[in-house]
Prior knowledge:
Two copies of one chain form a homodimer. By secondary structure, chain A is mainly alpha-helical.
Amino acid sequence: MIFSSKAEYGVRLMVELGRQAPQGLPDDVPDTAPLHPTSLKALADAEGLPLAYLEQVVARLRKAGLVMSARGAHGGYWLARPAEEIAMYEVVQALEGAIAPMDCFVSEHTDRVLCSHEPDSGRGCATKLLWTRVQGGIIRSLQTTTLAELVEFSRRQDRVPA
Amino acid sequence: MIFSSKAEYGVRLMVELGRQAPQGLPDDVPDTAPLHPTSLKALADAEGLPLAYLEQVVARLRKAGLVMSARGAHGGYWLARPAEEIAMYEVVQALEGAIAPMDCFVSEHTDRVLCSHEPDSGRGCATKLLWTRVQGGIIRSLQTTTLAELVEFSRRQDRVPA
DNA sequence: AGCTAAACCGACCCCCCTGGTAGGATTTAG
DNA sequence: CTAAATCCTACCAGGGGGGTCGGTTTAGCT
């Protein structure tokens, strides 16, 4: 229960978009819309997820500049960058907000009782050391995983049906 | 918002108990109750946390065999093992349950729609690869941090009041 | 023996956030 | 003009986190 389903769904969307993206063709015109963007309906069907909810999810990805969109008939979504250049850290952060293992990490000015150990003075509590390490572990694993890896993995899985 | 406050409070308790434990005296009778166990009331006051709630938290630590207790007057809690031999992974796991970055990780038989990508066949979804890495990052950071480190850190902080 | 400090236990409760729905407005290909 | 799509805002139900309360047992002290 660490990440919410927004992260799950969002990552799925990204992987699916990565699969749609034309591979092999190296360095042709970037940043331009593909001929056939993928509609959210198609993605929802492919993954068996509720369309209306995915709208909210994909909106976050768009606002974060990870995907681009075209409106109107035959509109849809595509990756704003090649999958190799997208670290999963960006994706998860866009979906979940800041990666903080504990509440008192997010914003310093939420004077909850949680960080009662540092009432006024900014002297760090012992737990902070621990959560910092955990946070580091999470971020490192997300930084070093690219969307391309997941897409690659997904393609391999297809080839082994049974 | 990754870990709940149970983890925060529980870790605090453990650190506090580690501070109480007699240091320096090496290898005297282990596993025996100290002369003056620390009452939960004292811990609650020291940390400014609600006593009644801490009871639930410390119960988890006790059931996990991390702390021991004595009932009755002048009763209280103490570490079941020296702090050097307690990995924070055990502590957090006792408090939070299994460390799983996503719901479908906890128990395999919760056939939610979450893991719709593997409806019947056990073919791993691409997201699973990602969550596995994240989980690894978290666990590694928790395994390599001992309670003794946090206690040490906490003691250092004391010496620098301003 | 009896008082009191403590651990123990289980039931209860409130609020917020997650996960999801509903309904519309806007854009654009054909 | 119409259908297909993105976009936007409001709404809602349920569950779990974060506690509280009351009572029972244990054990030291006088």
